[in-house]
Amino acid sequence: MRIQIAQRADADELLGSNPFALLTGMLLDQQVAMEWAFTGPFTIAKRLGGELSPDEIADRDPEEFAALLAQKPAVHRYPSSMAKRVQQLAAYLVEHYDGDAAALWRDVPDGKELLRRLNDLPGFGKQKAQIFLALLGKQFGITPEGWREAAGPYGEEGSHRSVADVVDDDSLARVRAAKQAAKQAAKRAAEPG
Question: Which domains does the chain have, with CATH numbers?
Fold first, then answer.
């Protein structure tokens, strides 16, 4: 699977081969550039000696893990709070899926159920769950019945709304432009009339 989300070959290779890394990148994708967020799992894995698994992260001392994310360059703008969220995600996967992140979508009956499972993840709200569902469908071929409907506007074919649509430099630029246009529209709508 050739992924180009982090825009770094080594980080993208991990995202394409490690479902937990992909979930972690999605979790980190807030209040920082998308490439920074999705490079985070690779940075964490490198600092842990190359391995990135829910079991290992869930078992880490929280203060040590937060310090690991805060090392320069920091994994996120808010390394302490994101370290806590990553550990919560890891612990949830260990408890509910035996540490197998791909079990979230393996043999899922339909898009609605997959969306429910993603919504249940710590740190995943409706929008993040829909974007991740669209990412699974568009780039990983995980397409249970009704996945596009469950992903909402992010599942639309040909859209350029989110990380689910980033497959190269051109699509990254189109997603950025669409996000900027949406922010401007929201800003205009919020201005007093």
Answer: 1-104 (1.10.340), 126-192 (no CATH)
